[in-house]
Amino acid sequence: MNQNTGKTVLILGANSDVAKQCIIQYIQKGFSVIAASRDTASLEKLVADHKLDSSKVTILYFDAVDFDSHQTFYDQLAVKPHIAVYAAGFLVDNEKALRDFKEAQQMMKVNYMGAVSILNIIAMDQSNTHLERMIGLSSLSGVRGRKSNFVYGSTKAAFTQYLAGLRQELASRKIKVNVLVIGYIRTKINEGLQLNESLIMEPDYVAKYIVNARNSFTIVPNFKWKIIYTILKILPESLVAKLP
Ligand SMILES: NC(=O)c1ccc[n+]([C@@H]2O[C@H](COP(=O)([O-])OP(=O)(O)OC[C@H]3O[C@@H](n4cnc5c(N)ncnc54)[C@H](OP(=O)(O)O)[C@@H]3O)[C@@H](O)[C@H]2O)c1
Fold first, then answer.
1. Which ligand 1 atom lies nearest to the CA of residue 36?
2. pLDDT value at 1 more than 80
3. Which parts of the chain are beta strand (E)?
4. Coiled-coil segments, which residues (predicted)?
């Protein structure tokens, strides 16, 4: 167990399976955690089940798509964060997203608009002089447009580009920004999907990359996914079009 860092991390969308592992690992590293989620009961259970030091965890209600609530949510934080992590995410399959705009719109709202809404507020609070890092969980599906998942992928591509610009915006204040470009993880967002087992990562494995984020802007957990990421980036469009 590490020394108390005296630092606070705010995790938005904290009921994500990956975010829950981040809560555990940040506490092990000596952080206090503000865990913000729509499902506060599930987070109370996490604290109890893992016997986490409850003095280190503050659980708050947060809805990523209730944009009008975000300023008040932030203003009411008793301690402003040193680190902010945006983990909320929503996925419906591409066929559904193409036929039902409400579902597509929900992905845009959770994966992109909600992130921009709350992260802008956090980033623009210059009175929080100890803000040192902002981290977003994005996806390999946002690297290239592919026919199997381009609606979800486009929301993640937008989020990745937003974070790239935010990094430039905040550089003069020495605030780091990281984007996690993630492949398959065994979490509830993927329930029911047939995924290549040899490529699936566990939530605690991905969480390690998040809590240990350093200077590199783009973080791609796992060497197999790094290779896929590198190939995807350089592949000609004619070959990307042949992928699923
Ligand atoms: N799993 C993968 O293969 C994979 C791959 C690449 C990127 N990612 C990204 O990684 C992040 C974490 O996902 P995960 O894999 O840990 O899946 P997960 O367990 O399903 O987590 C997604 C979380 O987003 C939360 N969320 C959805 N709508 C929200 C809203 N309106 N307000 C607040 N929270 C909301 C959900 O909250 P509730 O629990 O309340 O429903 C859920 O806890 C997501 O951004 C996801 O897109 C995942």
1. 33
2. no
3. 8-12, 32-37, 57-61, 83-86, 133-139, 176-182, 218-219
4. none
φ, ψ for residue 178, nearest 5 deg: -125, 145
Q: 155-194 burial, b for 16+ CB within 10 Å, e for fewer?
A: bbbbbbebbeebbeebeeeebbbbbbbbbbbbbeeeeeee
Question: Which residue ranges form the domains of the chain, and what is each CATH number?
Answer: 8-240 (3.40.50.720)
User: For the whole prediction, is pTM greater than 0.90?
Assistant: yes
C-beta 222 within 6 A of ligand 1: no
172 CA from centroid of ligand 1 (Å): 31
**For ligand 1, is residue 123 a contact (CB within 6 Å)?**
no
Contact 132, 83 (CB under 8 A): yes
Atom of ligand 1 nearest to the CA of 14: 43
- Taking only the tens place, the pLDDT of each residue in 142-166 is 999 999 999 999 999 999 999 999 9
CB of 182 sitting under 6 A from ligand 1: yes
